[in-house]
Design a protein that fits this description.
The strands form three sheets. Strands 4-3-7-5-6 form a five-stranded mixed beta sheet, with helices on one face. The protein has a three-stranded antiparallel beta sheet with strand order 8-10-9. A two-stranded antiparallel ribbon has the order 1-2. The radius of gyration is 49 Å and the shape is rod-shaped. Among the domains are: 1-39, no CATH class; 86-296, no CATH class. With 396 residues, the protein is of the alpha+beta class. Helices cover 53% and strands 14% of the residues. The chain has five helices and ten strands, in the order αββββααααββββββ.
Length: 396
């Protein structure tokens, strides 16, 4: 500022100015260097961007530091992606996480039940789902429900098979009886036909009256009608018999087709739940880290860079919170998170398709999903801390 004042004073002192008075006279005015006062009406604004609550343009003040500008901009934003309150968000995610694990266990039991119906799996038991972080009582209820459902379906299938087999046996008996009846009807028809022929011969020789011939004709007509009725009934029974045999043959094939389709849908749903579990687990880890950063006061010092326009163009200057700014500066703030608060790496959940008898599954710290009041749920399971602030369950 002093250099600017000296420069302006030197320029003005070498000039003579004429000033006209109200009465029309001109007065020569000579400006002395000591009589010049210079002040700045407005500074160029400064700009801030990055991990800041309210990035944007702000008014520059003399001797302003990066710390002061950050305070004006609302402070550091330790959450790179805008999210709700991490404590409330964590509670919602824990609830969703627990529901997904319960649904995961249910779908696993569902798949085992289908495979049991197909003859590809052994008897389902609660011990097969010990690695799933769900209360033991809930697992027992899931297994019990699937076991009862399996019994009911097998009983219903067996009853349907017994019904069809009984229908086939009854149809065979009806076919045998009707075939025997048809044979006798044929014999009776032939006998009546012979009687009619004899009656006609006797009537032609004059040894028999006309009413006797008429009676013989009626007997032949009646025998023929009974024969046709028996043949039609036999054809109908055989048709029903063929339908029952086809249903009996198709019963097992259709059941296996339905089971394979149900198994495919269950496998697809299980994969979808696995992906949702992975996503919610990562959110829980991120939220837990954010809570840790909040409790720790925001972590280490941020990275501050100043982009300033120099004689050779824009220059990038590494700075700190106490660096004084100049008008027109653009500041970029980057938070350096402790313990790598980047997006957690995705974990493979392929081993959850068929849990082994022993194993471990990592869940976020302090996010235990088993009810504290359920003693059986935590029996034989020891929680312990891992790096990355995660809580694991390992079978003793």
């Amino acid at each position: 500022m002093q250099q600017i004042r000296a420069k302006i004073g030197a320029a003005l002192t070498s000039k003579v100015f004429r000033q006209r008075t109200p009465d029309g006279r001109e007065v020569i005015v000579v400006i002395d260097g000591d009589g010049i006062t210079t002040s700045v009406a407005e500074y160029r604004p400064v700009y801030i961007n990055g991990d800041i609550s309210k990035p944007g343009e702000y008014t520059y003040r003399p001797s302003m530091t990066a710390r002061q500008l950050v305070a004006i901009a609302g402070g550091y934003d330790i959450m790179r992606i805008k999210m709700n309150n991490p404590y409330l968000e964590s509670a919602d995610l824990r609830s969703e996480y627990g529901s997904l694990w319960t649904e995961f266990a249910k779908e696993q039991a569902h798949m085992w039940r289908i495979k049991s119906e197909l003859g590809e799996a052994t008897q389902l038991s609660p011990g097969a789902l010990t690695d799933v972080p769900v209360a033991r009582s809930a697992i027992s209820e899931i297994v019990h429900a699937e076991t009862e459902y399996l019994k009911i379906k097998e009983n219903d299938h067996q009853q349907e098979r017994s019904y069809l087999e009984r229908g086939v046996r009854q149809g065979d008996e009806e076919v045998r009886v009707l075939s025997e009846q048809q044979k006798r009807e044929e014999e009776g028809f032939q006998s009546d036909l012979e009687e009619l022929q004899k009656a006609q011969d006797l009537f032609a020789r004059g040894n028999l009256t006309s009413p006797r011939v008429t009676d013989a004709r009626r007997a032949v007509l009646l025998s023929s009608t009974r024969k046709l009725q028996t043949s039609a009934q036999l054809m109908q029974v055989k048709k029903q018999q063929d339908e029952l045999v086809r249903k009996l043959t198709k019963l097992d094939d259709q059941r296996r087709l339905d089971l394979f389709r149900e198994l495919q849908n269950a496998s697809l749903k299980l994969n979808q739940i696995r992906e949702r579990l992975q996503s919610v687990g990562e959110k829980l880890q991120y939220t837990a880290m954010v809570r840790t950063q909040l409790a720790g006061g925001g972590g280490s010092k941020p990275g501050i860079a100043i982009i300033r326009k120099g004689e050779g163009g824009p220059e990038r200057i590494t700075a700190n919170e106490d660096t004084e700014l100049q008008p027109g500066d653009a500041i970029e703030v980057t938070l350096r998170y402790e313990d790598g608060l980047e997006a957690p790496p995705r974990k493979k959940l392929s081993n959850l398709n068929t849990p082994a008898a022993t194993g471990r599954i990592d869940v976020p710290a302090a996010e235990s999903l088993r009810p504290a009041a359920d003693d059986e749920a935590t029996r034989g399971v020891t929680p312990h801390r891992n790096t990355g602030d995660a809580l694991s369950f390992q079978r003793k």
